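Hello,

Following up on my earlier ticket. Below are the two sequence lines again, exactly as submitted.
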Amino acid sequence: MIIEYHRPQTIEDALALLARTEPVTLPLAGGSALNRPSAEAVAAVDLQSLGLDTISKRANYLDLSAMLTLQTLLDFFHSSVADDHVLQEAFKKAIQHEATYNLRQVATVAGTIVSAGGRSPFTTAMLALDASIRIVSASRKAEAEEIGLGDLLPFRTEMLRGRLITKVTIPLNTTLAYEYVARTPADLPIVCAAVSRWSSGRTRVALGGFGSEPVLAFDGPESGGVEAAAISAYSQAQDEWASANYRKEIAGILALRCLEQ
Amino acid sequence: MKISLNVNRVLHDLQVDAGENLLKVMRRLGFFSVKHGCETGECGACAVLLDGKPINSCVYLAAQAEGHHIQTIEDIGEHPELGWKLSKGLHPIQQAFVEIGALQCGYCTPAQILAAKELLDRNPEPDETEVRDALSGVLCRCTGYVKPVQAVLRAAAVLRGEAVEPIKDFKPEGGAIPVPPEWIPGSGGEPPDIGELSASPAVDIASRTRVLPRIQVTPKEETWSTIGKPEKKVDALKLVQGKPAFTADFEKRDMLVAKVLHSPLAHARIKRIDASRARELPGVAAVLTWQDIPRVVYSTAGQSDPIPGPLDTFSLDEKVRFVGDRVAFVAAETEEIANLALELIEVEYEPLSHLLDPAEAMRPGAPILHDEPEYVNFADSDPSKNLAAQIHIDIGDVKKGFAEADHIIEAEYEVPKVQQAHIEPHVVLTYWDEDDRLVICTSTQVPFHVRRQLAPVLELPIKRIRVIKPRIGGGFGGKQEVLAEDVAAHLTIATRRPVIYEYTREEEFIAARSRHPMRIHMKTGVKKDGTMTANEMIVLSDTGAYGCHALTVTGNTGHKSMALYVGDGSYRKSPNIRFHADIVYTNHPPAGAYRGYGVPQGFWPLERHMERISRELELDPLEFRLKNALRSGELHPFSTAWSEGREPRPEIIETCGLEQCVQQGKAAIGWDQKYYNSSWKKLPGKPHLRRGIGVALVMQGTAIPYLDMGGASIKMNDDGSFNLLVGATDLGTGSDTVLAQMAAEVLGVPIDDVIVYSSDTDFTPFDKGAYASSTTYVSGAAVVKAAQQVAERIRIRAANMMNEDNGLDINGVEEQGDKRSGRITPQDIRLTDRKAIALNGRSFTLAEIGHNALHHENQEQIMGVASFMSPVSPPPFAAQFAEVTVDIDTGEIVVDKLVMAVDSGVIVNPITASGQVEGGMTQALGYAVCEEMLYDDEGRARERDLRDYHIFQAHEMPELETIFVETFEPSHPFGVKAVAEIPMDGVAPAVGNAVLDALGIQMDDIPITPEKVWQAMQNNPKEAD
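Thanks for your patience. The regenerated structure is below:
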């Protein structure tokens, strides 16, 4: 339950609000998650006026401002501006799988990552891409912290308390493949896999479809062992939606299929 | 906090709560086109355009919207004729939705149109994929998205300035399908070869944008001017404008908001309940517990009297029987206060052992759910055994039939609990009117049953209750239940104030009704030549905590499905069929009515079993089915055995177009090219994929014989228009439209001259309500009878007027027509083109006649009142086909195409009827592959929102094709049979059989999830090679 609403005009003001301990104060990155019914009384800090909605290419990187909507990102990849076609198709697939058209209009890059459960296709893809997260805080604004998504995801609540994601950076010198299994084409994944490969041979495999967040199954200098790593990563991935036995087998298959692309 | 919202370019200064979502504020401002369907952004019914982009306002704060431009459908277009002031008319997208019939209940229509507008504003020439992506954020449970997509493509063409063909002139793809010669009386033609009848055997598979279905018409249809035509829905204009037409749109001054405290336990006694703190909360008007209201036992099943099931429910009880059961009612000034009050109610439960496995229900020592002394049995119900109902039907000599078989094939099947998932939740508004009569304005399929069944519960006589049914945002059986009305009514009685009670989406999942899950054992005897000698179905059905619809739903599981195959040869006259069902209580949420009403549960095992048999015996699956299938002229085998708990009476099948359906469906799906074609099953370059094709034959019923009654009245106005008043309940199906078409056909007027008002217990004649596929048939026959009475009065008056004009005495005209003297008799007059025309060409307009009747001579109100009750329930028949692609590594299934060729008698309106088929197939597809409601060991639901309970979205649909094979059902004046429910029956088994065709793997329970397929392949690795 949202009991306060703030719309700061600067990042400093936003951070000052987020630094409060009473009431619990959370950033409102789009609202499709935070605005859901909840018994917890929170203050919402709407980030829409902070100018955090840009997208820019920087050498081999793409900088995504925190408030960039998924649809704007998708439109970017639909346009000819993005020239890495391998990345484009898989990334578009993961974005479209994440949310329907209406929800993509408000769901933001950072908001999706922060609120993601294990079944988030977009976050799985971002994890495979080794997305880097820029975090600022009121106390250390001059020294914004850069942290890998994989390091952030399991500790989001603690690491983001009183702090703000301003930017998410993904590499462009990599390929991305995304595969999933679901009951229907638009249903949440039971298992999804995203694989990034760099020209150096570095390969990262992220798995989604289970648990509280997607997991990194493999990050190595080359792709040997990817299947085994994926199977191992989901060997205990049992819940009310699928058995671990199924998930681990499918994780291995999907990881291999991603590699073959 | 204070904010300003720019809505449709008008600034509104508002005081809102910080957490108030935009949906609530928009509705508070009177923008009722913005609909509540969920609270989590999944359904999209609440969409508005924010700076031109569609966003779901239920997950968007009103405060967030400040500084942005909000646009709603109220700003998009308006009725083209609004008196003396010039109207801008409908937007082309709205116009296209009206013309295409792209709406059924219309609840999601404003959101779909806004999504389409955003698309066409940025992309004037979208392809179908882009249209489907744009519509992906708005769930529709009615249409299957076929017609909305067509409408957007048509609107795009109009906006580009291209000419589009009027829908009335539009010819079905490939033209109408020729009538087979044997259907033409006296022709004696030979049955055509398979495939010969198809106008376009190689159907244009790529196109998903057919405007009209293909139809094989009956010869009679050629003579009609309105019946059989794609008339626009009579409610289309208001629905595309998002007008306040639904229950929640009718607000009353001083209205309170109701909330219900639900049980957290599956089975418990309430040892102590203390609502004092809740009652003391400012803004709370009433809190009711079981101690505060009369203890009246009743059934929530909305059915005719006597209720064919046990009476086992109280509005509030001192015992709870499922997680979600009612504990207390609250009425408060706001929803927020009501929710706070719920938290202040102190309840001490005494947990009881709970029962979740239906197989355990009748075993000694099982927890007993219903030990209340007020329990009223019906038929074989026995609460001491947790038995809500039991059915045993033996037709013929089943034992002898099995003894005569060369093969006996047995197997077990299972079907899940699933949700109707209508986008408009259950919602009811109650208030005392100026005469101190209780008005119940409710989204119900059964307004007259609501009135009758609630009267004793509320301790009011029937005459002091008025039930009004506004537009319904989908029901699908979920609203054939007296489910929410008593909550608001009790609170109105307690407070004397208007009360609105609207379910949340979570309440829909934990506290509404669902389809009965069942475990089914099939045993079939077959001779070597494929003749079935005996067929047996044993069912264990889980009715949940209450026995609403327990007997009748499960009875229909056998009655409709097991009637389809009688055997061949001598078995046709004396089939051997057994159906046994135990319908047991468990501590799951209650099941109830859901479109198909038990029949889909029967056809999953039956049609999977038929496929299993045909493969085991190496019989052609379609030849085997048709060899044993029921035919016209034969006795409905169950008609002498069971009739919804009432006296059964024999019934002959007059019409059966099943063979034609098979032929048409085969051609459309390419059966002969694919079924025995192993190379087709493998996809080049994709070794992990297999294709398969499957079929299911199905039948349903049309109304309940000797029980279902519908009434209608028609009165003539002084401009020659007519008011048609029906008790029938259009829940989005288009029934108001087809009833108007029937009246218009008889009266010789366009449908625009028939003004329909439906379902108000004070003003319209009785109708049993919208269920059992009965409205077009039963209510339609009542409309025809009433219209015939009106037509006769018009002809008499017209003859009088004509004779008087000729200076002839009008006396005795009816009895003594004398053509030699020029006197005109009523029999000489036909009604057409808004005129009464005599044989000699003399005519009066209906406006002249209506005016004459009301104002000038021998004044009278020309009107007719009639009702109809059918002695028969003529079954529609269908062949349903599915084509799938299966991933043999992961078990994932993609359904590529569904085809349904259906004999529903004469199709009154091909647009509304095909919409029924498309929407039904889509719901049934969910039943096949993704929909189910599961519970943990404590009876807590896994599915509580539309994210986990996935229903198909616009951008993931397979191709759908509908074919109508018309027959003329002689028991109805226009030859109709039902169409609404039969699409639910065959999709799942057709998909299951297609998976079998692809992999050689038997899937015996649904939904067919990837893991189930994968597991089956692990267990049968050779089959899946």
